[in-house]
């Protein structure tokens, strides 16, 4: 019985120590010029190979082991951001990324290598009223308030 109690105490303290060794890094990622949140910006720690993406409000949350850490934030068309610090508790880091690529105009064009296409019209099928009577009930137009009546 004492052995079971001793094992329980050791496992409980090990679990508590393991839970206190992590902290959360959270914040928002936005455009430095406009302040708009950046949807799906990436934030990651290359040492622990863990990361996440910002949500529609630019918010992110990343759980990391306590101690010396470095996180990087990237978004296509923006200068990347890296911060190194000692993570001892839950930390908020709001990141404003600077745009590096600005385009005035984008023109997309294309040509089909197939010469046998004469029209882009979709195919059509004509159904007579007699054929529409054999369609399943779920395809019929509902005319009453009762379903499938």
Automatic annotation (TrEMBL):
<keyword id="KW-0675">Receptor</keyword>
<dbReference type="InterPro" id="IPR008969">
    <property type="entry name" value="CarboxyPept-like_regulatory"/>
</dbReference>
<feature type="signal peptide">
    <location>
        <begin position="1"/>
        <end position="18"/>
    </location>
</feature>
<protein>
    <submittedName>
        <fullName>TonB-dependent receptor</fullName>
    </submittedName>
</protein>
<dbReference type="Pfam" id="PF13715">
    <property type="entry name" value="CarbopepD_reg_2"/>
</dbReference>
<keyword id="KW-0732">Signal</keyword>
């Amino acid at each position: 019985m004492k052995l079971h109690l001793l094992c329980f105490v050791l496992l409980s303290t090990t679990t508590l120590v393991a839970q206190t060794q992590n902290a959360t890094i959270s914040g928002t990622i936005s455009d430095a010029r406009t302040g708009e949140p950046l949807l799906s910006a990436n934030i990651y720690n290359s040492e622990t190979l863990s990361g996440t993406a910002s949500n529609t409000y630019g918010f992110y949350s990343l759980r990391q082991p306590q101690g010396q850490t470095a996180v990087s934030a990237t978004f296509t068309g923006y200068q990347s951001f890296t911060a190194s610090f000692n993570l001892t508790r839950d930390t908020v880091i709001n990141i404003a990324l600077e745009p590096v690529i600005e385009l005035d105009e984008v023109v997309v064009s294309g040509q089909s290598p197939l010469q046998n296409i004469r029209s882009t019209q979709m195919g059509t099928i004509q159904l007579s009223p007699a054929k529409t009577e054999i369609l399943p009930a779920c395809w019929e137009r509902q005319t009453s308030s009762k379903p499938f009546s």
